[in-house]
Please model this.
Amino acid sequence: MEDVVRILNVGIMPLTKEQLLERLDRGVLVTPNVDHLVKLQRDREFYDVYRRAEWVVCDSRILHRLSRFLSRPLPEAIPGSSFFTDYYRYHRHDPDCRIFLLGAAEGIADKARAEINREVGREIVVGAHSPSYGFEKNEAECREIIDIVNRSGATVLLVGVGAPKQEKWIMKYRDSMPGVRLFMGLGATIDFEAKTLKRAPAVWQRLGLEWFYRFCKEPRRLFRRYFIDDMGFFYHFGLQLLGLYRDPFASKKDS
Model:
């Protein structure tokens, strides 16, 4: 991947939201944030998914701001949850854009489908499915999901089941869905679109504190991620600024 801003062992494409909307047509879109970058220091399979993805775009305002310490900063953060809204609005009159939503709890994906189609004014979302917990370990269920997606006629598949599960699932099965041109792994986006989960107020988003707003809503679930696991990122980034960071998979990546 050329023309990227490298943060730890990830090359992030220096795109604005407008540029991404204009160019995003096919491939796999992944959206690194601090949590992803921590996982990418120890999860080789997740790392390989990132290396194979055609689109790697900054999801995090924290990463965007820290990139200012690098020789080439990122132009902006493009949070995946809000980008998806921009994406389907951008393609509202494009008949070749037919979206399938995969993820969220039972009934939530169907609710998101109805909300999006109501806003767009056409059936831009042609299918929705909420898989069972642990579905990725059940090959029969995965094959059933693939069949549902293929029969829907979707050209865009949004998978929102959390990282790194969603990215790994996409990369494992993308070739089984030949009609799908574009795959997106976008976490809680389906819940946001269904309006069952509220995004942080705009001022929190502008300050880069949407993560803290989410923590306040779900402290038990998110405490370890934000205040223990993700702290390792700042150690590794400090090493990068000092020229001491080493990609843990560098010696293996071409093997």
Q: What stands out?
A: The longest helix spans residues 139-152. The chain has a mean pLDDT of 92.
